[in-house]
Write a structure and sequence with these properties.
The protein is mainly α. It has one domain. Helices cover 80% and strands 0% of the residues. It is built from eleven helices and no strands. It is globular. Belongs to the very long-chain fatty acids dehydratase HACD family. Pathway: Lipid metabolism; fatty acid biosynthesis. Pfam families: PTPLA (PF04387).
Length: 189
């Protein structure tokens, strides 16, 4: 990917078409990392890793994959370089630390590389979202018009359904009999 980045405009535009499938598969497989944390194979905290993976999945599948116009932007190439650089160092360090091998340079990179790259990654993700907003606005406008046309076919309005659901939810939360039966959610991992 770094070679594609250095060859100019045409190669950067074509980045998603060249490695998009591989990135989707790798990011989907990286969800197994949450299972590794829960089982105890990897000694990390669950919530930060969950937030990072959720952010990447949303950016990749919702923002980039769903819009062909966004796939051709330069920010996709930059974002893929940042993600791959971080993951390459982090997964290599984790794999070697699990089997008991330690390299000082790799440990230093793993502990310090994220400091400059994470803010740049967040900026690139925000810029990707910003560049995709006009395309989502067009889709939202089309869906809104279609829903308005279909609303004449159905006698029940969507606003009434949502208000009924809201009232039922509030009644359930405020009912003293139901409050005693409700158990707090269990969060364990």
């Amino acid at each position: 990917m770094t070679v594609r980045f250095s060859f100019g405009e045409d190669s950067m535009v074509d980045t998603f078409y060249a490695i998009g499938l591989v990135m989707r598969v790798c990011q989907s497989i990286s969800l197994l990392e949450l299972l590794h944390i829960c089982v105890g194979i990897e000694p990390n905290h669950l919530l930060p890793r969950f937030l990072q993976l959720t952010e990447r999945i949303i950016i990749l599948f919702v923002v980039i994959t769903s819009q062909e116009e966004v796939q051709e932007k330069y920010v996709v190439c930059v974002l893929f370089i940042f993600w791959n650089l971080l993951d390459m160092v982090r997964y290599t360090y984790s794999m070697l630390s699990v089997i008991g091998i330690s390299y000082a340079v790799l440990t230093w990179l793993s502990q310090t590389l994220w400091m400059p790259i994470y803010p740049l990654c967040v900026l690139a993700e925000a810029f990707a979202i910003y560049q995709s907003l006009p395309y989502f606005d067009i889709i939202w406008h089309i869906l809104h018009e279609a829903a308005f046309r279909l609303s004449h076919l159905f006698p029940i309005r969507a606003e009434n359904v949502s208000h009924d659901a809201l009232y039922r939810h509030v009644f359930y939360l405020q009912s003293p009999l139901l409050r005693k039966k409700r158990r707090p959610p269990r969060l364990s991992c």
